[in-house]
Amino acid sequence: MHRSICLLAVMLSGCAVTASDLRARAPIASLSSTKAVNEIAACVADQWSKQNGAVASTPRPNGTSVTLTMQDFNVLTMYAADIEDRGSERALTAYAAKGARFKKVSDDLQLCV
Predict the structure, then answer these.
(1) Are 94 and 25 in contact (CB under 8 A)?
(2) According to the UniProt entry, where is the signal peptide (predicted)?
(3) Nearest to 44 by CA among 91, 71, 82
(4) For 98-112, b where at least 16 C-beta lie within 10 A, e where not — what string?
(5) Where are the domains of the chain?
């Protein structure tokens, strides 16, 4: 039994998607705002926390990245929103894993810019 669980864990770990993997894909949204980076990041984290997944924020050069990892119809999926300070405006660029249903998650971003 223990051996089966270990094997399953190893198999599943090979399927994990990272925020870096998402950034290699085309963005699902590119938005701009005059709000502060921290204000946008807090709003995104708050909106995404309503999705019954795990939300995390990570500092990035000139900004913050917010990620959402959740179970979507028995498939583990991930979303990322990078908020970057570009001087006179903030840029929000969002990414989703292949096959992710991102309409609701993308709509949440509109509320934050």
Answers:
(1) no
(2) 1-19
(3) 82
(4) eebebeebbebbeeb
(5) 18-110
d(CA 92, CA 66): 10
pTM value is 0.79
Among 21, 6, 4, 12, CA closest to 95 = 21
Return the amino acid letter for 14. G
Cα–Cα separations (whole angstroms), residue 10 to 14, 43, 60, 71, 99: 7, 35, 30, 19, 23
Residues paired with 60 in a beta bridge: 63
CATH 3.30.310.80 for domain 18-110, yes or no, is yes
